[in-house]
Design brief:
Elements (H helix, E strand, L loop, with lengths): L1 H7 L2 H9 L2 H10 L10 H5 L6 H14 L5 H10 L3 H13 L6 H7 L5 H12 L5 H8 L7 H12 L20 E4 L2 H4 L8 E6 L15 H18 E11 L2 E3 L9 E3 L1 H11 L2 E10 L10 H6 L11 E9 L5 H5 L4 H6 L11 E3 L14 H11 L5 E4 L6 H8 L3 E6 L2 H12 L12 E4 H8 L1
Parallel strand pairs: 1-10, 1-11, 2-3, 2-9, 6-8, 9-10
Antiparallel strand pairs: 3-7, 4-5, 6-7
Helix pairs in contact: 3-5, 5-7, 6-7, 7-9, 8-9, 13-14, 18-19
Amino acid sequence: MEAELLKKEPEKIQELIRQNNIGAIIRLLGKLGRLNENFDTKPLMGLLKHENEKVRSLAVKNLAKIGNSTLINVFVNVVENDNSSSVRREAVSGIGRLRNSSNKQLLFKYLSDSDPEVVLQAMRGLLVFREDKTVQEKLKKLGNHPNEIIQEVIKKEFHSSSSNGYDPNHAKSPDYMKNVVVYGDVRDILKSVPNESVHLTFTSPPYYNARDYSIYSSYREYLNFLKEVFKEVHRVTKEGRFFLLNTSPIIIPRVGRQYSSKRYPIPYDIHPILMNMGWEFIDDIIWEKPEASAKNRNAGFLQHRKPLGYKPNPCTECVMVYRKKTDKLIDWNIKQYDKKIVEESKINGDFESSNVWKIDTTFDKTHSAVFPLELCNKVIKFYSFKRDLVFDPFAGSGTFGESAINLDRFFFLAEKEKKYFERIKENLIQTKIFSNNQFSLKFLSLNEFGRVAK
């Protein structure tokens, strides 16, 4: 209502300016909808020198809505003289929104601006004239721009070979991989898995030298092992689909009182490796466990209370969310499914609204570090559709497979430790739902899987 009155009586903003009611000015400017050439620009023009950059930015943004070519010098003056990135960006956007070919030279000039946000707005303005060979030439040169966002825009606009249409294979996966557990080294197993066959991967790799089954000669060797596995996971993941990695820093105890213990920041060291191989970082989820489940590191500090000796109890783990890099939006992935599947896969009831998930730990008689079923359920619900193929390359006790069964997904699991492979058998065979599933449960050796994959 206030915004409509402002359109009819611009002097009302003058009163707010006199009162210096910044909050009210911002609210009013944010509510303005479409403006036409008859709108009185004087109140907005008066705000271009306001001390508050949000006010200046909204003033420029609303002036740009008017679409009046006589405002070109106003926009240029703002770009040349304002010291705020957001205000300058809106001014360049205003020039672009005029869609006037005579402004191309101005926009060319701003392609070399030191502010990437200004460059991006100039690019947007020029893409209107993308059929112009000079425009194409200027824009394509930005493919080598140091800013990664600018590079991605140019790649999508001029170098993308992928189709945004329907992919009949996206929702499908190989039948021989459905509800299958393979005993062997995942690196060997993945050699028999075709490109883009998995919809979702969720795993917790063995922690560096923290268990008998995860001994490596060096931390570098451990990271190289993970790199080798996750590069293959990237290959077998469908375009634009997700990979969630559960890790946490670990402590290697000191070898004697005269030495220090060593803490390895696994999630932070593996992150740049994943980015370099083509994963796009999406989210960081914190799995918060009860403090009673954490190893107590407070004992010494509790006694002496001396600075520098403080060590908190580690009661969180990282669940890092990655997406296989693509120039397609999430909407494209969703549109590859029948509406019925999309509807059936919707999350009903409460859901996690923050990135802190409070979930109790779980204990198993055989495996010392198992996924809680609740954690697996959340991941599967949020990052896959019904009938998708979900994968865990370090299956452990097989909780991810159990969750997949319960939520009407197919699973593919790999496990190289014999006792854990047998534990998965024991756990999953007890799942009665398989009697109604067209793909029966299979436990295969590496050689057997290689044969069925041919």
